[in-house]
Write a structure and sequence with these properties.
Blueprint (H helix, E strand, L loop, with lengths): L14 H5 L4 H12 L2 H6 L2 H4 L6 E6 L6 H15 L3 E6 L4 H13 L4 E4 L8 H9 L4 E4 L8 E6 L1 H15 L3 E7 L5 H19 L3 E8 L5 H14 L6 E4 L2 H13 L8 E3 L3 H9 L4 E4 L2 H16 L11 E4 L5 E7 L2 E3 L5 H5 L5 H4 L18
Parallel strand pairs: 1-2, 1-3, 3-4, 4-5, 5-12, 6-7, 6-8, 9-10
Antiparallel strand pairs: 10-13, 11-12
Helix pairs in contact: 5-13, 6-7, 8-9, 10-11
The structure holds beta-D-galactopyranose (GAL).
């Protein structure tokens, strides 16, 4: 994206300081601001950072298809409220065109910071240019946007894929594997798959693992994943030993296809910690869900928004690290750690208040064979 470079040193400094960057006073103010310890800047409330005026944060969501997104939103909104900042939002409903219009609209409504869950980052060029022209800092939320001035806030998505493959390999060290990958427009799809291959490549190259299916699923749609799985089963004569599936929604579709084909006990992976997936794990119908506590991500977004609105440069955000994108763009990033949830540690999500024991263990026979979280107390 060549037209998306940073606009000189002023790009991350919002408001009057940035707009009058030609004046020596403004430059001195900017230097002073950058010299402040990040923690101090983060501690200042968003409202005071805008000279008493309320900070407005605009969030452009890609969709709310998976249940996690409403959890992200609730936590982000709570974080903004604590900081006295206002929340504006738009739901692109899985449409790149709508997302472009949504972002332009949020800019027109005067947001100070933009948080974008990109539906297709490669389609966002003109909206990002508008944000840059209006000197509005942008946070790429959950999904990478490859522009040097856009702050990347997500989980370690390659690690997500590694965890999925490690857990599958632990229960299926060899055999016929299928990959059910996410939306081809979503950069997380490639990160996750790269992580899966980090772990599985040696077994594939040694011939222990044979790949009998490898497909993208448009929009991460569960019913499309189900159809894809049905086709793989038809092609392979129902002979499948494991499904490395990239998220829980699609794992639901895969589980239905396997059940309809009369197959049980086939290892399946996922991510997001969806309630239905946690229950499938307890019931033995899914091997792992990679849990990304999106409450933490939402809170972090509120914090980073406040800091950027206050003039903190992306690289100065507390905890930020340099991250080189697949296209070689260097951005500042904050990447949270994902966690493997299997039948052995379902208590982890229950103890964290993410899911209730009742919902995780619904329909599970509480005998000694049950996962520890669902066993009747002795
Ligand atoms: C990914 C995200 C996943 C999953 C998926 C479908 O980008 O990282 O958590 O929800 O999108 O929306």
């Amino acid at each position: 994206m060549p037209n998306e470079g940073a606009e000189g040193s002023c790009v991350s400094l919002r408001g009057p300081v940035c707009r009058s960057a030609s004046s020596a006073r403004a430059r001195a103010a900017a230097r002073a601001l950058l010299a402040l310890p990040a923690a101090l800047i983060l501690a200042s409330t968003a409202a005071s950072a805008r000279g008493g005026r309320e900070v407005v944060v605009g969030v452009s969501w890609s969709h709310f298809q998976e249940e996690r997104w409403k959890i992200d939103e609730a936590s982000l909104v709570a974080g903004l409220r604590e900081r006295g900042a206002r929340y504006l939002s738009a739901d692109a409903q899985s449409s790149s065109e709508k997302q472009l219009a949504d972002i332009e609209n949020l800019i027109t409504r005067g947001v100070d910071v933009l948080v974008v869950v990109a539906h297709d980052p490669s389609a966002l060029g003109s909206a990002l240019a508008s944000a840059r022209a209006a000197r509005i800092p942008v946070i790429a939320y959950d999904r990478l946007i490859e522009a040097p001035d856009v702050f990347y806030l997500s989980f370690d998505n390659r690690r997500v894929g590694r965890i999925q493959a490690e857990q599958i390999l632990a229960v299926a060290p060899s055999g016929r594997f299928a990959f059910i990958k996410g939306s081809p427009q979503d950069p997380n799809t490639e990160f996750v798959h790269a992580g899966q291959l980090d772990v599985l490549r040696p077994a594939i190259e040694a011939g222990r693992v044979e790949v009998v299916g490898d497909q993208y699923v448009d929009g991460w749609l569960p019913d499309v994943a189900q159809r894809v799985m049905e086709q793989i089963l038809t092609r392979s004569g129902g002979r499948i030993d494991a499904v490395v599936c990239s998220n829980d929604g699609m794992a639901g579709g895969v589980a239905s296809a396997l059940a309809a084909a009369g197959l049980s006990g086939v290892p399946v992976s996922g991510q997001d910690g969806d309630q239905a997936a946690l229950n499938r794990i307890a019931l033995g119908r899914q091997t792992v869900s990679v849990w990304k506590d999106s409450r933490a991500l939402g809170r972090a977004a509120a914090e980073v928004s406040a800091a950027l609105a206050g003039g903190t440069a992306p690289a100065q955000i507390a905890g930020a690290v340099p991250f080189t994108t697949p296209a070689g763009v260097r951005v500042s990033a904050l990447l949270l750690e994902p966690v493997a949830i299997t039948r052995a540690n379902l208590d982890r999500v229950i103890d964290a208040g993410w899911a209730t024991r009742a919902s995780v263990c619904r329909g599970v026979d509480a005998g000694p064979q049950a996962p520890p979280a669902c066993r009747a107390p002795k």
